[in-house]
Design goal:
The chain is mainly α. Helix content is about 85%, strand content about 0%. Helix 1 packs across helix 3 and helix 2 (about 25-40) packs antiparallel against helix 3 (about 50-95).
Length: about 100
């Protein structure tokens, strides 16, 4: 796989990740799960440390999924910028006969 194809793949993944972040249904699901986990965490008994730990992990995983999607979007934006730069350099070389 060439660098250019990897960059195109990263840009395509970024577009899909952005669609997920913008998806109202997914955002509502994350919010609902987070609220449900927090509510369950608040009503745990004092001796249920294992239950609290599991809920804590579940709450944090939601944030990690969001962060991962945001990271994919950011990496894709960088890939798009690199692709534009490659296209610009290729056009300059073509114009000036450096091929």
């Amino acid at each position: 796989m060439t660098d250019e194809s990897r960059l195109r793949e990263a840009a395509a993944k970024a577009a899909r990740a952005q669609e997920l972040l913008d998806n109202e249904l997914l955002a509502d699901a994350f919010e609902s799960l987070e609220k449900t986990y927090i509510a369950a965490w608040r009503v745990t008994t004092i001796d249920d440390s294992a239950g609290r730990e599991k809920l804590f992990v579940a709450i944090n995983i939601i944030g990690k999924v969001r962060d991962h999607l945001a990271s994919v979007v950011a990496n894709g934006r960088l890939a798009e910028a690199e692709l534009k730069e490659l296209a610009y350099l290729a056009e300059r070389k073509r114009r000036f006969g450096i091929l």
